[in-house]
Design a protein that fits this description.
single chain, mainly alpha, 3-stranded antiparallel beta sheet, disordered N terminus
Length: 797
């Protein structure tokens, strides 16, 4: 302990031969370099070794204790109060991590370099010492002399550092021996003056550098000041805001991040040019006018800023300043207010798609608002209106952000829709095919809408209601007065009989009626379509206005209509060579006379009141030896020879397969049978009604001779009836009621049918059913034979 105290007293009493006191703008690091040079030390490390403070680096001096500062002050031997003053020490700022006290101004420590320094040769001529402000990375010039800073020896090109010194104004690497054999520097940096900085706005640059300049004299010479709204902020906060704005101004348009693009490497600090610093200084002085100009310059690169929309796309770099944690919150709030004001002022030209809070345009609506405006779904607006070239659609190239529409265009287009009729409704009113409505428009009989609403209607055509109503009125006025002549035929019926529904020139028929060449009469009734309510004298008069159809080729849909087949069947028939790809009318009629498909057979039988499924129909045809003419692929389609189909035989077979109707027991019959019928153990509800219903259904099956399945498909209860029948056979119920059923004439039962797919009646309910039929027949013949109980027969089977 005594040895430690002795060493401490020795270090406390140590003095440098040449006393050193801090000079204006000189920090503790620069003071140590100068003291080392004046006392012939190799560098600041030797001074720290003399104080036995080897653990400290220059950047750690700000955390030195009061005792350690006192030892350093005693070592320098100058004015202890100057050395102990907090100004020259980079002490941390309370409650602001990463910030230090830079000569009374709060500054982020990251802006200073602690291993290397720079010099201004012109300033070194009259004041040979280093300034702390030269270590500021964002300044590439000396604010006092406006000289570019020198960061490496102009001779050996070695960068300057704090490890070694041969004089503050000399290169520590370029050594030579003087006449007395001492090592001296061979390069005097003061002999290498650098070029001066020239900017357009000198006052703005002086203001910005004065925010952090250590010299109070230079700071007092600044004639300008910040705007009133910024006057209450600390100089360090204003300087940090200025640096953040420079970072935003130098951010490339291709930068994809939302955070501020701050410098990291030493080369990144080349972005802080004197001109940009002067301009940002002017922005602080003239706040907010200059900042608006900066915002407009950043907006010019919005189109190259991919992956964003709205304010992030237009003013993204400046917006990142408002999100940067190193900028004072109140300054961020002021900047955000100016950005919002800029977005409002630029809303009239709408450079990009924006959100609602930054759009400031009532004439633009989103997809959801557009859907509500036009009364359609959002999907319709997004798929139809947005794809229409007749509407102004504003959206981002990458698909991000809302899609905007002009409300005036939508209102104008869809308000006209009330005055339009789609082609389908127009065709219904005229009584003609929808495809023929366009021919009437081409002939000038009605007016077709060709505005924006057509382009977003999925290919639908619209026609003006007034032109359609005018045509309908003129057509009705041309009708002859009085009742139609005998033999008159409606125009649509006549065209269908002539086979020219799809090939008739409807516009010629309309013109012939309007010009009086084709006399027509009106047939009043429930059919209100024009061509259905108007009739001609006879079909020969109508035939003269139709083309010759013999050489006309039909499409497959027309063949299906003519042959009464499904279009898919016609397509398959063409693939298998039964029809040509574009058959004539005669060829289509020959096909209809020779062949018929399974669905068409079902349609014919349905018209006769016989509904049958495909599989049952195929079974019935196979049972009658009818083979298909062709088997088509796809869902097992068949084509048959029409002449081989006997519709009468099929109808009779289907009638036989119909399930039996439920029997109805009279009250007298039920009273005689009620006590003989067993009751279900688990029966719920009215047991008598349940027993009566089961007995009626069983008698219906026995009387018809049909299977349980055919009855259950229509009336249900298939499993229940079969199980109940088996139970009654086993518990003797049928043995008890069989005699009563015979006496009541309810036992006229045929033997059950055995069809394909059913098991033989050899056991179970099938055997019991056969026994009942045989015994009922014997009882009706007054047989006195005693029968063995059915349960015993079933047990021995």
């Amino acid at each position: 302990m005594s040895a430690l105290m002795t060493a401490q007293r020795r270090s406390d009493g140590a003095r440098l031969p040449v006393a050193s006191s801090p000079r204006p703008g000189e920090g503790i690091a620069e003071l140590m370099v100068r003291a080392s040079a004046e006392n012939s030390y190799e560098g600041p490390v030797d001074i720290m070794r003399a104080l036995e403070m080897r653990k400290f680096f220059l950047k750690d001096l700000g955390r030195a204790s009061t005792y350690e500062r006192q030892r350093i002050a005693n070592l320098f031997g100058g004015s202890a109060s100057d050395v102990l003053h907090d100004v020259i020490w980079p002490t941390p700022v309370k409650d602001r991590p990463g910030w230090i006290n830079f000569f009374g101004t709060a500054l982020r420590a990251v802006h200073l370099t602690w291993t290397r320094f720079r010099v201004a040769p012109r300033s070194m001529r009259h004041s040979p010492y280093l300034r702390s402000i030269w270590r500021l990375k964002v300044l590439s010039f000396d604010p006092e002399s406006r000289e570019w800073l020198l960061d490496a020896c102009p001779v050996c090109k070695a960068p300057f550092n704090f490890a070694r010194t041969l004089g503050v104004s000399h290169c520590p690497r370029c050594e030579k021996l003087d006449g007395e054999g001492f090592v001296r520097s061979g390069v005097d940096l003061a002999a290498y003056p650098q070029r001066l900085v020239h900017v357009h706005d000198e006052a703005a640059l002086d203001y910005l550098t004065g925010l952090i300049d250590p010299s109070p004299v230079l700071r007092a010479r600044i004639s300008t000041s910040a705007a009133t709204v910024l006057s209450n902020f600390d100089r360090g906060d204003l300087f940090e805001l200025a640096l953040a704005i420079v970072c935003a101004m130098t951010t490339p348009s291709e930068f994809r991040g939302k955070t501020l693009n701050r410098p990291f490497a030493a080369k990144d600090y080349k972005r802080f040019t004197p001109d940009l610093l002067a301009r940002v200084g002017r922005a602080l002085i003239d706040w907010p006018d200059t900042i608006q100009g900066i915002a407009e310059e950043i907006r010019e690169g919005a189109l190259r800023r991919q992956g964003f929309f709205g304010i992030h796309k237009e003013l993204g770099p400046l917006l990142s300043v408002t999100l940067d944690p190193h900028v004072h919150p109140d300054l961020r709030k002021l900047l955000r207010e100016e950005l919002d004001a800029n977005m409002e002022r630029s809303a009239s030209r709408l450079p990009t798609v924006r959100r609602a809070e930054n759009r400031h345009r009532d004439d633009l609506v989103t997809t959801q608002a557009a859907a509500k405006l036009v009364g359609r779904t959002r999907k319709f607006v997004a798929n139809q209106i947005a794809a229409s070239p007749d509407f102004t659609v504003i959206r981002t190239a990458g698909g991000k952000g809302p899609t905007l529409f002009r409300a005036s265009e939508l209102e104008q287009a869809f308000s006209l829709k009330e005055k339009l009729e789609p082609s389908t409704k127009a065709a219904v009113a005229l009584g003609i095919p929808p495809s023929a409505v366009a021919d009437l428009a081409d002939a000038g009989l009605i007016v077709r809408e060709r505005g924006p609403i057509v382009s977003c209607s999925s290919g639908k055509a619209y026609y003006h209601k007034d032109s359609l109503e005018s045509l309908l009125s003129c057509m009705m006025k041309t009708a002859q007065s009085g009742p139609p002549p005998k033999g008159a035929i409606r125009i649509t019926v006549g065209i269908n009989r002539l086979g020219g529904e799809l090939n008739a020139r409807w516009e010629e028929i309309f013109k012939a009626i309007l010009e009086g060449e084709l006399p027509v009469w009106q047939i009043r009734g429930r059919l209100l379509a024009v061509m259905t309510s108007l009739a001609v004298e006879d079909i020969s008069r109508l035939a003269s206005y139709l083309h010759d159809k013999r050489g006309v080729r039909l499409v497959q849909s027309e063949v299906a209509l003519l042959a009464g087949e499904n279009p898919n069947t016609i397509t398959l028939a063409v693939e298998y060579g039964l029809l040509s790809k574009r058959p004539t009318i005669d060829e289509a009629r020959r096909f209809a006379d020779q062949y018929i498909s399974t669905p068409a057979i079902q349609t014919v039988l349905g018209l006769r009141g016989c509904d049958v499924d495909v599989y049952t129909l195929r079974k019935l045809l196979a049972a009658r030896g009818v083979s298909p003419a062709l088997r088509l692929t796809g869902r097992e389609r068949f084509i048959w020879f029409r002449q081989s189909i006997d519709f009468g035989s099929l109808q009779a077979a289907i009638e036989e397969r119909k399930p039996p109707e439920r029997s109805q027991l009279s009250e007298t019959q039920w009273l005689r049978l009620r006590s003989l019928v067993s009751t279900l153990t688990r029966s719920r509800g009215d047991r008598d009604q349940e027993n009566r219903r089961d007995l009626e259904d069983m008698l219906a099956v026995l009387r018809s001779g049909s299977t349980w399945c055919s009855f259950g498909k229509v009336h249900g209860r298939l499993g229940h009836l079969r199980r109940r029948f088996q139970i009654w056979a086993e518990d003797g119920t049928w043995d008890r009621i069989l005699g009563e059923l015979v006496s009541l004439n309810l036992a006229d039962w045929p033997l059950p049918k055995i069809e394909d797919g059913h098991r033989q009646l050899r056991a179970g309910s099938g055997l019991a059913r056969c026994l009942l039929v045989e015994r009922a027949t014997l009882l009706k013949d007054n047989s006195r034979r005693r029968f063995k109980p059915i349960a015993d027969v079933l047990a021995s089977a």
